[in-house]
Amino acid sequence: MASLISMSFATLGTATFYTTYIPSACYGSTPEGTMIAAAGDELWDGGKICGKTFQVTCTGPTNPYPHPCKDGTSVSVKIVDQCPNCGGTLDLSKEAFSTIADPVAGVIKIDYQQ
After folding, report:
1. Nearest CA to 63 among 14, 11, 111, 12?
2. Fewer CB in a 10 Å sphere around the end CB: N or C, the chain?
3. Any idea what the CATH number is for the domain that residue 101 is in?
4. The pLDDT of residue 74 is above 60
């Protein structure tokens, strides 16, 4: 009997960070913690992404800042907001960004998957 193997692949993107979490487009004035993110325009899809959780890993710099990634770490974030015209795929909370990269880098390359 053949068995099926399920594989999931990460998607490439970029991440920035922000520090003001309330109000949010998905939850208004209800706090959702600090391991959160805002979705860029390409993911927002009219808010259908609200509440979905993504695993995010830093893969490298987008600028001359050397070695921003904290090797071997990833973070799980909940989408709570929209980041219109922010230029990144995900806008992570500063706490989430700091888990996977040095915030001094400002913008990083990422792999992410739901």
Report:
1. 14
2. N
3. 2.40.40.10
4. yes
